[in-house]
Amino acid sequence: MAAGDRIPADDWTDQDLLTKDEAGERLDDEIIAVTGELERLRAAGIGPLEQDEAELLTRRLDAMRAARASFRN
Prior knowledge:
By secondary structure, this protein is mainly α.
């Protein structure tokens, strides 16, 4: 397809797009879920295997919080 050619119809709709507010709300929900999962893991006691899982959850949580903060700026 040449650079100026267009496809007959776009393969997405406006419904496929998230606003920053919607993305932020989804991140908030996921942050709550991961925080709860991490708290349950810590309450059950952390052994070597759980330590790795807790570290991954913590890194994921930090990344989601950073992404969420970027929506507020």
